[in-house]
Amino acid sequence: MSDISVMKLKIEKLMALSKSPNVAEAAAALEKANKLLIQYNIELSEVVGFKTEVVEETYTDGYSLKDNETVLAGSVARFNLCELIIDSRLEGSDRIHKYLKIIGKEHNVNASKVMADYVFDSCDRASLSVKGKGRYVVHSFKVGFCMEMITRIDNMRLYNESQSQTSTALVLVENKQEVNDYMDEYYNGFTKRDMDTPKIKDTFGYMAGQLAAKNLSLNRELRA
What are the φ and ψ backbone dihedral angles of 119, each rounded to 5 degrees? Predict the structure, then answer.
């Protein structure tokens, strides 16, 4: 078996491992897959089991979704050449259940979920620094963290789009036309809305959250 064939099998296994429920394990596997694809100049379409069609997967759901967390998940999705929608459904007589769905090619959807899990997990861990200072402080910390991450990730995406060159990131080596076509066909009637201005109940907590987000390390392929 040639070296390239061996690498393709290894990439296939890493992509499968990137779906692990363990956030650190999934992120590490995706990063290793990225590096091998770049190092050996392999296209994902050459890897066995790779699917090219657009899919949609539910990232999370519930009766209430926080605005700032939803917008952050959307920023992550767009960075990974996906789109994010809120599918609201009436369940029972008067309760609206909301489904946060990521739409894109399977590997990009997976990359979005891995990145979002990592960011939200990091937010939860960082917020422990203000534990015991009151729920308003903790809430404001998480809002500040999310808002700063939205800014960072959106700036990263805009920078990559402005470069007009092949990125070193797995999720940026292709265009988004198929996803756009899918959205036009199935979700053309969906209403887009801007995020409501978040309520900051504690300035200290908000600024501490922003600082924590600024210091958060991202994968080398995804670094601002």
Answer: -65, -45
Distance between CA atoms of residues 75 and 70, nearest Å? 9
How many Cβ atoms from other residues are within 10 Å of residue 215's Cβ?
9
Composition of the chain by helix, strand, coil, percent to 5:
60, 15, 30
Report the distance separating Cα 45 and Cα 55, nearest Å. 16
pLDDT tens per residue, range 62-75: 888 888 889 999 99
Residues 86, 149, single domain; the answer is: yes
Do 43 and 79 lie in one domain? The reply is no
Q: Is the whole model's pTM more than 0.85, yes or no?
A: no
pLDDT of residue 95: 82
Q: Which domain holds residue 23?
A: 1-50
| Distant-in-sequence contacts of 18-23, Cβ < 8 A, 24+ apart | 18/110, 18/111, 18/114, 19/110, 23/114, 23/117, 23/118, 23/121
Count: domains in the chain: 2
> 116: closest CA among 189, 198, 218, 47?
218
